[in-house]
Specification:
Layout: H1 2-24, H2 32-64, H3 76-91, H4 93-98, H5 101-123, H6 131-155, H7 158-168, H8 180-194, H9 201-204, H10 208-213, H11 218-240, H12 246-258, H13 263-288, H14 295-317
Helix pairs in contact: 1-2, 1-13, 2-8, 2-11, 2-12, 2-13, 3-6, 3-7, 5-11, 8-11, 12-13
Length: 318
């Protein structure tokens, strides 16, 4: 019982150490007034993004009872880029710059939640429900949104394409600070809402039939958690852009490192590992590669290799 707590303390200390290094490296009395506020905004964005990605990936894997899936399989990342592309394609890039960032963000969140709700109603809230069908439709819709977005991006003016390109790749050097405040409020409200369901996660991980036999309103919990996942994915994507493999990487590392079934411990560990990965990756990008690459390239490369390892591991288990 004590061992996971000790491991969480170790992860927390490592995360705080990396944050302190990131905040204080090459800071002097001459530049601290300029450097510290800007680095603080990046750290806030990292805490929000890392927390959202780790939590949504852990909850999504619990719902689907599958360790190699993340919310990106539902096509939510592709839907967000599709919404941004449609706005520029129809109204022009000036609309994107003139439009209030908070309004753009709220419209994107509402559309993504609506998309998840429709998916749930059509393919999951039925007697012959099959979550594999839901995931298959999510993959198809994600490919559809991505293909239509690419088609529109080919047709628009190259200068307008640059506006969309900034949103296509994760970057902590170009954090959308205009929506930091509303993101903090949304994450805080969602966190309070999720606490009423957190005690169900351990039972949900046993599977649908076992959860229903143990008295859980399975359909209600799954529906509400899918909406929560949609909102938090919107927050993380709007802040820094899509990071495909981060959730897969940190959630599975947390399971291997903590060796426990308790989601309270696993979610905390996943969030800490996510923060460590993002802050550590940012330090490597800035101090080792001197901005010649992006953090998403490093994380997707490591995450992709780990994904192949998980596939081979699961194949041997069969």
């Amino acid at each position: 019982m004590k061992q996971p707590k000790i491991k969480l303390i170790v992860l927390a200390v490592l995360a705080l150490t990396l944050i302190a290094i990131f905040m204080l490296i090459k800071v002097s009395s001459n530049n601290w007034e300029y450097v510290i506020p800007r680095r603080a905004l990046k750290i806030v964005a990292i805490l929000l993004t890392g927390g959202c990605i780790a939590f949504t990936s852990m909850v999504f894997q619990t719902i689907t009872n599958n360790r190699i899936l993340t919310p990106s399989i539902l096509g939510l990342d592709s839907l967000y880029l599709f919404i941004q592309t449609v706005v520029v394609f129809i109204f022009g890039s000036s609309t994107m710059t003139i439009m209030n960032s908070n309004i753009n963000f709220l419209v994107s969140v509402v559309l993504m939640v609506l998309f998840s709700s429709i998916l749930y109603k059509l393919f999951f809230n039925r007697e012959d429900q099959n979550i594999l069908l839901l995931l298959l439709i999510g993959i198809v819709m994600g490919s559809f949104f991505s293909s239509v977005s690419s088609f529109m991006q080919v047709l628009i003016d190259p200068n307008e394409f640059l506006i969309i390109q900034d949103k296509m790749f994760a970057s902590f050097n170009n954090v959308n600070t205009n929506i930091l405040t509303i993101s903090i409020i949304i994450v805080a409200v969602v966190s309070i809402y999720v606490t009423r369901y957190s005690r169900f996660f351990d039972v949900m991980s046993l599977g649908r039939d076992q959860a229903i036999n143990l008295g859980i309103d399975y359909e209600k919990v799954v529906r509400n958690m899918l909406i929560v996942v949609s909102i938090l994915v919107s927050v993380s994507t709007a802040l820094v852009g899509p990071i495909t493999f981060l959730g897969l990487l940190v959630v599975n590392l947390a399971r291997e490192f903590l060796k426990t079934y308790k989601h309270s411990t696993l979610i905390t560990g996943s969030i800490l590992l996510s923060i460590i990965s993002l802050v550590g990756g940012l330090l490597i990008v800035e101090r080792v590669f001197t901005f010649s690459t992006t953090i998403s390239v490093i994380i997707n490369f490591v995450g992709g290799v780990y994904f192949i390892y998980l596939l081979l591991k699961e194949r041997r288990a069969w």
